[in-house]
Write a structure and sequence with these properties.
There is one protein chain. The chain is of the alpha+beta class and about 180 residues long. The protein contains five helices and ten strands. The strands form three sheets. It has a four-stranded antiparallel sheet, with helices on one face. Strands 9-8-7-10 form a four-stranded mixed sheet, covered by helices on one side. The chain has a two-stranded antiparallel ribbon with strand order 1-2. α1 packs antiparallel against α2.
Length: about 180
Amino acid sequence: MIRNGDPLPPTVYPLAKGRVWAMLAGSLVFVALGIVFLVVHSTVAMMVAGGLSVPFFGLCAVFIIQRLLHQGRPELVLDDAGVDHARLGRFGWDEIAAVRIREQPVGKTSQLFLELVLHDPDAYLARAPKLVRSTASMNARLGFGPASVSTNTLPVPPEEVLDAMRRHCPGLAIQQ
């Protein structure tokens, strides 16, 4: 948006490193527990739990480490042209029909997401990074579109990001 003849400067959100380090530690703890379950193998249930947790949380740890190694890149950038997310890629404001805060229950807690509701999700998936394409069907089963930003990696609450989005794109629809 142009104000007084000048474009609004980009709003940049760096990676919330403390939270990401905590996620890495949690993933590694679950890998270690999975290994213990496999070694002890006192029951079939423990072996299955270990056999599932080691590869799943190991893969999570790999992705988290990759993200930490790319610390120079901001997690989220909002500008007058659109949104740029470290994992999801770039979206023009004209591609985004609406934005909403979504909550996904996870055990006794919940995870918040900023969901970009797209006019043409299939067009985005055609150009999306491979990881996004591979998780799109799982996200759809959970009721999410392909462009959901985890708030765990952002240093501010999702409401603050929505306010910044409104500053850059005043006509942006916010869904409840």
